Amino acid sequence: MFKVLLLNDDYTPMDFVIVVLQRFFALSREKATQIMLKVHREGIGVCGIYPKDVAATKVQQVKSYAKQHQHPLQCVMEEM
Questions:
Q1: In this structure, how many other beta carbons lie within 10 angstroms of the beta carbon of residue 73?
Q2: Under a CB-based contact definition with an 8 Å cutoff, are residues 47 and 5 in contact?
Q3: Within 10 A of 50 (CB to CB), how many other CB atoms are there?
Q4: Residue 69's CB: how many other CB atoms inside 10 A?
Q5: Fewest CB within a 10 Å sphere: which of 21, 59, 76, 77?
Q6: Longest dimension (CA), the chain
Q7: CA–CA gap between residue 66 and residue 69 (Å, rounded)
Q8: Which residues lie across from 73 on neighbouring strands?
Protein backbone atom coordinates (compact mmCIF):
# COMPACT_ATOMS: atom_id res chain seq x y z
CA MET A 1 0.00 0.00 0.00
CA PHE A 2 1.08 3.57 -0.70
CA LYS A 3 0.37 6.90 0.97
CA VAL A 4 -0.52 9.77 -1.35
CA LEU A 5 0.95 13.00 0.03
CA LEU A 6 0.54 16.69 -0.76
CA LEU A 7 3.56 18.95 -0.26
CA ASN A 8 3.34 22.56 0.86
CA ASP A 9 4.47 25.43 -1.34
CA ASP A 10 4.24 29.19 -0.97
CA TYR A 11 2.09 29.77 -4.07
CA THR A 12 -0.85 27.37 -4.32
CA PRO A 13 -3.98 28.91 -2.73
CA MET A 14 -5.49 27.05 0.21
CA ASP A 15 -8.89 26.98 -1.49
CA PHE A 16 -7.38 25.23 -4.51
CA VAL A 17 -5.88 22.54 -2.26
CA ILE A 18 -9.30 21.98 -0.66
CA VAL A 19 -10.88 21.59 -4.13
CA VAL A 20 -8.19 19.07 -5.11
CA LEU A 21 -8.77 17.03 -1.94
CA GLN A 22 -12.53 17.00 -2.48
CA ARG A 23 -12.34 16.26 -6.20
CA PHE A 24 -9.67 13.55 -6.31
CA PHE A 25 -9.95 12.01 -2.83
CA ALA A 26 -13.73 12.30 -2.25
CA LEU A 27 -13.26 14.10 1.05
CA SER A 28 -15.81 16.26 2.81
CA ARG A 29 -15.04 19.98 2.93
CA GLU A 30 -14.29 19.66 6.64
CA LYS A 31 -11.82 16.77 6.20
CA ALA A 32 -10.23 18.47 3.17
CA THR A 33 -9.75 21.64 5.21
CA GLN A 34 -8.10 19.66 8.04
CA ILE A 35 -5.62 18.05 5.63
CA MET A 36 -4.93 21.37 3.87
CA LEU A 37 -4.11 22.98 7.23
CA LYS A 38 -1.78 20.08 8.09
CA VAL A 39 0.02 20.57 4.76
CA HIS A 40 0.21 24.30 5.40
CA ARG A 41 1.54 23.98 8.96
CA GLU A 42 3.71 20.86 8.71
CA GLY A 43 4.75 20.93 5.05
CA ILE A 44 3.16 17.60 4.16
CA GLY A 45 -0.17 15.83 4.55
CA VAL A 46 -1.62 12.39 3.78
CA CYS A 47 -4.53 12.41 1.32
CA GLY A 48 -5.19 8.69 1.45
CA ILE A 49 -3.75 5.18 1.34
CA TYR A 50 -4.17 3.10 -1.82
CA PRO A 51 -2.77 0.18 -3.80
CA LYS A 52 0.23 1.20 -5.94
CA ASP A 53 -1.66 1.62 -9.24
CA VAL A 54 -4.46 3.70 -7.68
CA ALA A 55 -1.95 5.88 -5.80
CA ALA A 56 0.07 6.48 -8.99
CA THR A 57 -3.09 7.47 -10.88
CA LYS A 58 -4.15 9.92 -8.16
CA VAL A 59 -0.68 11.52 -8.08
CA GLN A 60 -0.81 12.05 -11.86
CA GLN A 61 -4.36 13.42 -11.74
CA VAL A 62 -3.45 15.96 -9.05
CA LYS A 63 -0.25 17.04 -10.84
CA SER A 64 -2.10 17.44 -14.14
CA TYR A 65 -4.96 19.39 -12.57
CA ALA A 66 -2.55 21.70 -10.71
CA LYS A 67 -0.55 22.31 -13.89
CA GLN A 68 -3.71 23.09 -15.89
CA HIS A 69 -4.55 25.73 -13.28
CA GLN A 70 -0.96 27.03 -13.20
CA HIS A 71 -0.25 26.03 -9.60
CA PRO A 72 3.01 24.38 -8.46
CA LEU A 73 1.21 21.95 -6.10
CA GLN A 74 3.21 18.75 -5.70
CA CYS A 75 1.73 15.34 -4.99
CA VAL A 76 3.86 12.26 -4.31
CA MET A 77 3.41 8.68 -3.18
CA GLU A 78 5.35 6.81 -0.55
CA GLU A 79 5.35 3.09 0.21
CA MET A 80 4.12 2.20 3.67
A1: 21
A2: yes
A3: 18
A4: 13
A5: 76
A6: 30
A7: 5
A8: none
**pLDDT at position 56, please?**
98
How many whole angstroms separate alpha carbon 34 and alpha carbon 54? 23
Res 16: pLDDT: 98
Question: What is the distance between the alpha carbons of residues 57 and 48, in angstroms, rounded to a whole number?
Answer: 13
pLDDT number for residue 10: 92
Single pTM value for the model: 0.94
Q: How far apart are CA 40 and CA 15, in angstroms?
A: 12
CA distances from 49 to 2, 9, 69 (A): 5, 22, 25
The Cα–Cα gap between 70 and 45 comes to 21
Given a contact cutoff of 8 angstroms between Cβ atoms, the answer to whether 29 and 22 are in contact is: yes
